């Protein structure tokens, strides 16, 4: 049940983009069409899940036992950069069509603050695990839930922007300005989900 | 000077060199700063104990060595005659809005709350982060007007009670008023407020064995 | 090369926030108050100047094939050093900025400037670029933080100026960040359009 709550919380209540401000660059940059948004969402899900598994393990078996906590940032970002490289090479061989579709997004994922951010949150256990002990499993669930939240926000936003491209926008508002205001309204809408995870928890007797 | 060629040997050597240099430099910075960092952490606990038990009072005191039990840390504070002034308890609630919420709350020997301070939190700046200020006495000259949001939510126009100093979790219902308790939650931050009060109640229970809030929560879970 | 022009360029013509549209994550997340925005801007500027200097210094010793990983290690090292220094000497700001300090590593501004400028120019120019872009970023963040703090908490740099009952809470929350930045950008755009 708590795992279900982690999903509800990460996708709706504390959406990673609309509420925690991680992953804004691709959110604003890659969301002009729905299928590119979906592609980016898929790529992020894969990279984030693998990244969390590797970084969590490194934190608990290498960094902490040897008191090397200060190397966290460097190690994590190198791991992520390496993972993205590997993913690119694997995709090129295994599924060239998918590689073509994702195209330029893959190298962009390295600088996606969402990936490094969530890895750090999970490794330091500073995320809302809905009462569970922060283990590797909850971390992975959180990572998957977060990437779905990222994809949902991205796809909804892309849908709105596709419509927005067809209407008259004041000249000063064109481009990023109107996109940001739209994102703000979307974030406002998502605030309506506030407390839903707690409500479900109470209803389920937790 | 021409750039180094990108053959495997050069690339590997340069990358490794930079990585080693970086690790070395960071190890040095780590050594230099770990002293001040530890001092700051210890000072925070010491200042915390002093402020939650003594408040503004100027009494000579000593702190006994901390006692740890089941995730709580107890610091007994005694005056120079050996009388117990109070106990400062470090208490953590895992279900804050952004993760664990760690507070230190000071009880006098009868269980009355003398003071509190928030030690660690990941709550929202401007909202849940207000916890350190919200639950204590507002100074007399800050007139409390009901916030527009409160009026919208139908809360009574009179300023609500959210000062926990002087309350006793053994007698008073230290839960949010939404749940029938005596304490008003931070506007738009119910989750943080509930986590905070849970931590206070847990600390009291660890010291005294029960809380007034137990009776109600026990009943409602038997659906 | 006109070094002064490089600095001014970073503040206005190539302002990272309003023109280059880089580094959005920390811009939106850390500007709940003017002080936080200022702190974040200065922290980022520190890393930017250091990394620009280092990369410009060694640009001929870093083979093209590994330049991105090398840049990343350099930037990450300076960020980690900054983290430790902040934790030791400005602990309150460190706690407030939280996770966004390590996230300076993936701030597209730093990697972007390393690639676009520092790797192609001499050291002094790289330092000036770091200063200019850093100031531009800090000004943008402080401005955004100032507006959000004033409207959302009624205070300016911590001093209450508007009574709390008249505060529009939304501005210190997530939607307010997006909307405020969007409106500021529209204002900047209209100024640019009028000049053109």
Task: Please provide a written account of the structure.
The complex is a heterotrimer of chains A (206), B (223) and C (196). Chain A is an all-alpha fold and 206 residues long. Chain A contains ten helices and no strands. Chain A has one domain. Helix content of chain A is 72%, strand content 0%. In chain A, helix 4 crosses helix 5. Chain A starts with a helix and ends with a helix. The model of chain A has no long low-confidence stretch (mean pLDDT 84). Chain B is an alpha+beta fold and 223 residues long. Chain B has one domain. Chain B is 38% helix and 20% strand. In chain B, strands 1, 2, 3, 4, 5 and 6 form a six-stranded antiparallel sheet that branches. In chain B, strand 5 and strand 6 form a beta hairpin. Chain B is extended and about 80 Å long. The N and C termini of chain B lie far apart (79 Å). The C terminus of chain B is likely disordered. With 196 residues, chain C is an all-alpha fold. Chain C has one domain. Chain C has a two-stranded antiparallel sheet with strand order 1-2. In chain C, helix 3 runs antiparallel to helix 7 and helix 4 packs across helix 6. The longest helix of chain C is centred in the C-terminal third of the chain and has 31 residues. Chains A and C meet through helix 2, helix 4, helix 7 and helix 9 of A and helix 2, helix 4 and helix 8 of C.
Describe the structure in brief.
The complex is a heterotrimer of chains A (206), B (223) and C (196). Chain B is of the alpha+beta class.
Q: What is the gyration radius of chain C calculated from CA atoms?
A: 18 Å
Rg of chain B over CA atoms, rounded to whole Å, is 24 Å
Could you tell me the mean pLDDT of chain C?
A: 86
What is the tally of helical segments of chain C?
8
Shape of chain B: extended
- Protein structure class of chain C: mainly alpha
* Cα shape of chain C: globular
Number of domains of chain C: 1
What does the secondary structure layout of this molecule look like, with pairings?
The complex is a heterotrimer of chains A (206), B (223) and C (196).
Chain A: H1 2-13, H2 24-29, H3 34-63, H4 72-94, H5 96-102, H6 105-110, H7 113-123, H8 136-164, H9 176-191, H10 196-203
Helix pairs in contact in A: 1-8, 1-10, 3-4, 3-7, 3-8, 4-5, 4-7, 7-8
Chain B: H1 8-54, E1 61-63, E2 67-69, E3 72-79, E4 84-96, E5 99-107, E6 113-120, H2 131-134, H3 148-152, H4 190-208, H5 212-220
Antiparallel strand pairs in B: 1-3, 2-3, 3-4, 4-5, 5-6
Chain C: H1 3-11, H2 24-29, H3 34-57, H4 67-89, H5 91-97, H6 108-116, H7 123-153, E1 155-156, E2 159-160, H8 174-195
Antiparallel strand pairs in C: 1-2
Helix pairs in contact in C: 1-7, 3-4, 3-6, 3-7, 4-5, 4-6
């Amino acid at each position: 049940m708590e795992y279900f709550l982690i999903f509800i919380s990460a996708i709706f209540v504390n959406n990673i983009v609309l509420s925690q401000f991680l992953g804004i660059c691709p959110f604003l940059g890659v969301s002009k069409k729905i299928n590119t948004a979906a592609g980016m969402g898929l790529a992020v899900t894969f990279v984030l899940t693998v990244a969390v598994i590797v970084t969590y393990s490194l934190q608990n078996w290498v960094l902490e036992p040897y008191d090397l906590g200060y190397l966290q940032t460097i190690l994590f970002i190198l791991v992520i950069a390496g993972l993205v490289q590997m993913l690119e090479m694997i995709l090129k061989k295994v599924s060239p069509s998918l590689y073509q579709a994702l195209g330029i997004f893959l190298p962009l994922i390295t600088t996606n603050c969402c990936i490094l951010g969530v890895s750090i949150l999970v490794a330091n256990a500073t995320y809302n695990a809905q009462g569970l002990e922060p283990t590797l499993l909850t971390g992975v669930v959180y990572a998957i839930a977060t990437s779905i939240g990222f994809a949902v926000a991205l796809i909804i936003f892309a849908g709105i922007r596709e419509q927005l491209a067809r209407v008259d926008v004041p000249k000063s508002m064109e481009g990023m300005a109107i996109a940001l205001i739209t994102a703000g309204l979307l974030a406002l809408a998502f605030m309506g989900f506030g407390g839903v995870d707690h409500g479900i928890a109470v209803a389920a007797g937790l | 000077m021409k750039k180094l060629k990108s053959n495997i040997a050069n690339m590997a050597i340069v990358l490794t060199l930079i990585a080693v240099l970086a690790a070395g430099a960071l190890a040095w910075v780590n050594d230099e700063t770990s002293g001040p960092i530890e001092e700051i952490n210890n000072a925070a606990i010491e200042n915390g104990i002093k402020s939650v038990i003594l408040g503004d009072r100027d009494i000579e005191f000593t702190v006994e060595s901390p006692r740890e039990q089941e995730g709580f840390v107890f610091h007994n504070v005694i005056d120079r005659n050996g009388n117990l002034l109070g106990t400062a308890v470090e208490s953590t609630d895992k279900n804050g809005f952004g993760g664990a919420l760690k507070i230190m709350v000071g009880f006098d020997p009868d269980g009355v709350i003398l003071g509190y301070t928030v030690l660690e939190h990941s709550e929202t700046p401007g909202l849940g982060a207000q916890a350190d200020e919200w639950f204590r006495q507002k100074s007399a000259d800050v007139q409390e007007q009901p916030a527009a949001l409160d009026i919208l939510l139908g809360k009574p126009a009179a300023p609500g009670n959210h000062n926990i100093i002087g309350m006793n979790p053994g007698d008073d219902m230290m839960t949010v008023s939404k749940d029938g308790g005596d304490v008003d939650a931070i506007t738009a931050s119910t989750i943080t407020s509930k986590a905070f009060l849970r931590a206070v109640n847990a600390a009291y229970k660890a010291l005294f064995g029960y809380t007034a809030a137990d009776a109600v929560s026990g009943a409602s879970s038997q659906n | 090369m006109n070094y002064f022009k490089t600095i001014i360029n970073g503040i206005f013509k190539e302002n990272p926030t309003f023109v280059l549209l880089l580094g959005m994550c920390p811009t939106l997340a850390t500007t709940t108050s003017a002080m936080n925005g200022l702190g974040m801007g200065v922290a980022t500027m520190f890393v930017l100047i250091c990394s620009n200097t280092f990369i410009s210094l060694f640009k001929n010793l870093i083979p093209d094939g590994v330049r991105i990983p090398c840049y990343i290690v350099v930037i990450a090292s300076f960020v980690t050093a900054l983290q430790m220094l902040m934790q030791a000497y400005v602990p309150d700001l460190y706690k407030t900025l939280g996770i966004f300090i390590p996230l300076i590593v993936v701030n597209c501004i730093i990697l972007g400037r390393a690639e676009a400028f520092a790797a192609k120019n001499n050291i002094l120019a790289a330092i000036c670029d770091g200063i200019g872009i850093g100031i531009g970023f800090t000004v943008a963040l402080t401005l955004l933080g100032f507006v959000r703090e004033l409207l959302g908490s009624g205070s300016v740099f911590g001093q209450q100026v508007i009574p709390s009952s008249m505060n529009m809470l939304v501005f210190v929350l997530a939607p307010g960040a997006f909307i405020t930045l969007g409106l500021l950008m529209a204002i900047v755009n209209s100024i640019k359009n009028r000049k053109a």
